[in-house]
Write a structure and sequence with these properties.
Elements lengths: L8 H14 L4 H22 L6 H16 L5 H18 L19 H16 L4 H20 L10 H14 L3 H17 L7 H4 L16 H9 L6 H16 L3 H10 L5
Length: 272
């Protein structure tokens, strides 16, 4: 009776990394796989007091890093690279030849067959209307995102979707798609398709007619303590110091933009 061959995690991670090197990636990319993929896996095994590779142990490793990622303890780059190295090792352990392939996002849940058929029928209707394939490919993930939301609510058919469901969905859409207005435009078309096909009593096309809010960037200024420290650090015994003090006091107490401060300073002969 032959003994089962024991493979160390050091050897397995090295073999997986050699596969990465064979792809001919840039040096920086290879380093990323090493420091954010190989090293974290070895560190996990070391912490567990285990040096032997097994399908279960590597699955436990990936699960642990996923939990750390969900808790915000590690960045997505590390989690995804750990997944990639683990996937390569699984192929090596199974005696399968190495081939590059994209990993399915871990959070993706497959749509029910009825929703998949609905999505494909929608795409086919778009083709018949003359839509380009690139347009359809761009629309399908957004429609799928909405259908996944319907699945999460326990709906087996889109007819059960209510107006309040749509209202609750908008914030989730905004979290996933930066260009919310474009996504809403696609969903309006999908909602109209559902209504015209008699698949919903609620006209979801109208339900998605809400105007997307504009994204605004807010710049955080100095705290009062920080502003006081800056002002106090100016040497007002010199002409330049007095000039800088006047300019900063103007900015601090008036809220003027930098260009306006410069304009006022020139008028008062404070700025060159």
């Amino acid at each position: 009776m032959s003994k089962k061959k024991v493979i160390s995690i050091t050897d397995m991670t090295q073999k997986a990394y050699d596969c990465i090197l064979q792809e001919g990636y840039a040096k920086k990319t290879c380093q990323q796989y090493w420091y954010c993929g190989v090293i974290p896996i070895r560190r996990y095994y070391e912490q567990q007091g285990n040096e032997t590779y097994s399908p279960k142990s590597i699955n436990d490793c990936v699960t642990w890093y996923r939990e750390q990622y969900e808790q915000g303890a590690v960045y997505s780059v590390k989690f995804q690279n750990v997944r990639k190295i683990a996937a390569i090792m699984e192929r090596i352990a199974a005696g399968k030849p190495y081939q590059w392939q994209s990993l399915t996002p871990w959070y993706i849940v497959r749509l029910p067959d009825s929703y998949c058929a609905l999505l494909e029928d929608y795409a086919e209707q778009k083709r018949k209307k003359g839509c380009k394939e690139t347009t359809i490919r761009g629309a399908k993930p957004i429609v799928k995102h909405f259908l996944m939301y319907a699945v999460s609510l326990g709906y087996e058919c889109v007819r059960n979707i209510t107006l309040s469901d749509v209202v609750s969905y908008i914030p989730k859409l905004a979290e996933s798609y930066r260009r919310t207005g474009d996504a809403l435009s696609i969903l309006r078309g999908f909602g109209t398709y559902l209504y015209e096909r008699g698949l919903t009593e609620l006209h979801l096309g109208n339900a998605f007619s809400i105007k997307a809010p504009c994204r605004k960037k807010f710049h955080v200024g100095f705290t009062q303590e920080e502003a006081t420290a800056i002002i106090s650090g100016i040497d007002r015994s010199t002409a330049c110091g007095k000039r800088d003090y006047a300019i900063l006091m103007l900015a601090l107490h008036t809220g003027l933009r930098g260009i306006d401060v410069l304009k006022r300073g020139r008028q008062k002969h404070l700025c060159p």
